[in-house]
């Protein structure tokens, strides 16, 4: 019998969570809903899916950045989320992108599973810049051999 793999040691530190399914793939973490999976040889063959290991962390980072800071205060989590949503309606200029980066870094600082943020890059999606930016992250995770990379779009446009 062999000992635990590196992933087996990471899973308890990353935790387990219900897996979210997103309406679009490829970094568009919008319209989340609980994901389901088929369970063979069970009376009920569909159950809620679980996220484990690094998948849990990627989902947690996406949700932390998609949540406005203070939005969960009524649930006892006033500091959860990011402030970059405060910049909606601002022009897509370097100063705004620098503030987005600052607010993202502040939000990631509160994630205990991240050892160090290697990089955060905020760039306009189009040239000349329109209202959408791309936030690219690379983070070192506790006890993980490779960094986790994540790309999230963010619109500065005001939706009515």
Could you characterize what this model shows?
The radius of gyration is 18 Å and the shape is globular. The chain has a single domain, classed as Nuclear Transport Factor 2, Chain: A (Roll). It is built from 3 helices and 9 strands. The chain is α+β, with helices and mostly antiparallel strands. The strands form 4 sheets. A 3-stranded antiparallel β-sheet has the order 7-8-9, covered by helices on one side. The model has no long low-confidence stretch (mean pLDDT 80). Strand 8 and strand 9 form a beta hairpin.
Under CATH, the topology is which? Nuclear Transport Factor 2, Chain: A
By secondary-structure content and strand pairing, the structural class works out as: alpha+beta
- Using only C-alpha atoms, the radius of gyration works out to 18 Å
> What pattern of helices and strands is seen along the backbone?
HEEEEEEHHEEE
Count of runs of 4 or more consecutive helical residues: 3
Q: Beta-strand percentage?
A: 25-35%
- The outline comes out as globular
What strand line-up does the widest sheet have? 7-8-9
As a percent range, the share of helical residues equals 10-25%
Could you give a short account of the major beta sheet?
Answer: 3 strands, antiparallel
Question: Under the CATH scheme, which class?
Answer: Alpha Beta
Number of domains: 1
Oligomeric description of these chains: single chain
* Overall strand count: 9
CATH architecture: Roll
Terminal-residue CA separation: 59 Å
Mean pLDDT: 80
What topology emerges from the helices and strands here?
Layout: H1 6-14, E1 16-18, E2 20-22, E3 32-34, E4 36-38, E5 46-48, E6 50-52, H2 54-66, H3 94-109, E7 114-124, E8 132-141, E9 148-155
């Amino acid at each position: 019998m062999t000992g635990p793999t590196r992933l087996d040691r990471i899973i308890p530190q990353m935790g387990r969570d219900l897996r979210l399914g997103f309406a679009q793939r490829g970094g568009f973490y919008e319209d989340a809903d609980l994901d389901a999976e088929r369970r063979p040889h069970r009376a009920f063959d569909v159950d809620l899916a679980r996220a484990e290991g690094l998948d849990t962390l990627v989902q947690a980072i996406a949700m932390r950045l998609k949540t406005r800071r203070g939005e969960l205060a009524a649930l006892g989590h006033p500091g959860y989320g990011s402030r970059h949503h405060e910049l909606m309606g601002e022009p897509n200029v370097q100063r705004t992108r620098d503030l987005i980066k600052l607010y993202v870094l502040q939000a990631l600082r509160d994630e205990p599973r991240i050892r160090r943020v290697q990089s955060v890059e905020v760039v306009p999606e189009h040239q000349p810049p329109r209202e959408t930016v791309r936030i690219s992250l690379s983070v070192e995770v506790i006890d993980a051999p490779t960094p986790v990379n994540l790309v999230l779009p963010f619109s500065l446009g005001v939706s009515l």
